[in-house]
Write a structure and sequence with these properties.
The protein is an all-beta fold and 436 residues long. It folds into 2 domains: 21-80, no CATH class; 92-388, Single-stranded right-handed beta-helix, Pectin lyase-like (Pectate Lyase C-like), CATH 2.160.20.10. It contains 1 helix and 35 strands. The strands form 5 sheets. It has an 11-stranded parallel sheet, with helices on one face. Strands 7-10-13-16-19-22-25-28-31 form a 9-stranded parallel sheet, with no helix packed on it. The chain has a 9-stranded parallel sheet with strand order 8-11-14-17-20-23-26-29-32.
Length: 436
């Protein structure tokens, strides 16, 4: 039963306006959808209404009910007290390119830099970053905890643009239980987003045009770089053009780099990078790599292994499922280095790569599809459309266990009899940001 303050209904005759906005999008309770037209005998299948918001709390909504039984008699007008939009709480803080770091960080008086925000907040706080360009490297070290994560979020996905300067990373995080969500990240740094902590989630970002070093250290778009940390997730990101300078005669620039224990790499697109699209290395072990797409990278598309420092690590129990790896310069999906017998490679598409499409050492591969995934528009670069076309062999061809429940843009999985292979679910409607 609805609270009295949430909904009041007055039935008025003769209302025939029809609205284009879905009820849930207006913050209305779904119980409204169960209302029935008098004498019609069934609920309307139409959840759209026509209304103009009033300056008062109440909103006048006119419903037109459509029935297979009734004549053209119109039904009810509804006066609704909607659930109020959430206002800023004590845990919400704000950053704007037009703000001032001497401000208090409220919506009315935002800070100017994310760095300032990171020095002022505590576990459980959310930092909302407004659209705009933010120049200079970002460094965050404040810790959340399991029950009170810290979130840095671009409220409009991709509209807050971080332009790093030089040095190790455009954004370097050292705080545990932190989310970095929805930013556009670029710059002259060796790495785009570098995480050195545990239980961190890097979600929904676009990382591009990062200048990797022409040295063994190279560079990356997104990297979990500290070998002793654990349980970090990289998901829903679009990473492209992570490359060393043109004068460099070696392949450098990994799109997504996971170097530590457990965690997930899922629903990412890594494309046109100077080396590997997605790499597990160093101390990586028992990582889930699911529903990613790697295309047109200079090296292998996906590498699963361990090696180099800290030494003594065997990558085992890693799960590699529902990925698409095509047109890469070397192997499509490769097991390499120190690996164990319990790595599983299931239901991946690998096609048109420069070397083997699937290469394992100790792990087990099954359900591999060697076929063109048939994207809507495969340009091999950032400007393509990598949704699946209706005849794609990736549709309904994935495995459900360990796969994400939404796709790269928040659409629900599955839409058919099984989840699709790749980052996009065919036929899924995008979710509303943020969907995590």
């Amino acid at each position: 039963m609805l609270p009295a303050a949430a909904l009041s209904i007055a039935l008025l005759a003769g209302c025939g306006a029809e609205l284009k906005t879905p009820l849930p999008a207006m913050g209305l309770h779904p119980e409204i959808l169960a209302a029935k037209k008098p004498n019609s005998g069934r609920s309307s299948n139409q959840s759209f209404i026509a209304a103009t918001p009033l300056p008062a709390v109440q909103v006048l909504l006119a419903l037109t009910w459509r029935s297979n039984f009734a004549a053209k008699k119109s039904a009810a007008a509804v006066i609704v007290n909607p659930v109020p939009s959430p206002s800023a709480s004590k845990s919400d803080f704000y950053v704007s390119a037009s703000g001032n770091d001497a401000n208090s960080g409220t919506l009315a008086r935002p800070w100017k830099t994310i760095n300032r925000a990171a020095l002022q907040i505590k576990a459980g706080d959310v930092v909302h970053v407004a659209p705009g360009e933010y120049r200079g490297n970002v460094k965050t070290s404040v810790n959340g905890n399991a029950g009170a994560r810290i979130r840095f979020i671009s409220d409009k996905q991709g509209a807050a643009r971080i332009v790093g300067g030089s040095g190790e990373a455009a954004w370097q995080n050292k705080g545990n239980y932190v989310d970095v969500m929805g930013f556009d990240v670029t710059g002259g740094n060796a790495n785009g987003i570098e995480n050195l902590a545990s239980n961190v989630r890097i979600l929904g970002n676009t990382v591009h045009d990062i200048l990797a070093l022409c040295s063994p250290n190279g560079g990356s778009g997104i990297i979990n770089a500290e070998y002793t940390t654990h349980d970090n997730d990289i998901g829903f990101n679009f990473v492209h053009d992570i490359r060393a300078p043109a004068r460099c005669n070696k392949r450098h620039g990994v799109g997504i780099y996971q170097t530590n224990l457990r965690g997930h790499v899922y629903n990412n697109v890594s494309i046109h990078n100077g080396s590997v699209g997605i790499q597990l290395w160093h101390a990586a072990n028992a990582v889930v790599v699911a529903n990613n797409m790697t295309l047109n990278n200079a090296g292998p598309g996906i590498v699963i292994g361990a090696g180099d420092s800290p030494g003594g690590i065997i990558n085992d129990h890693s799960i590699v499922i529902n990925n698409i790896s095509i047109h890469n310069g070397q192997e499509g999906i490769q097991e390499f280095g120190a690996t164990g017998p319990d790595n599983r490679f299931q239901n991946n598409i690998s096609f048109g790569n420069g070397a083997a499409n699937m290469e394992t050492i100790t792990g087990t591969a099954s359900g591999t599809i060697i076929a063109d995934p048939q994207f809507v528009n495969n340009t091999g670069n950032w400007d393509g459309d990598y949704h699946l076309s209706p005849k794609s062999p990736a549709i309904d061809a994935g495995v459900s266990a360990n796969s994400p429940t939404t796709d790269m843009v928040g659409g629900r999985r599955p839409q058919g009899r099984a989840v699709d292979i790749g980052a996009y679910e065919f036929g899924a409607r995008p979710g509303k940001w943020p969907w995590q």
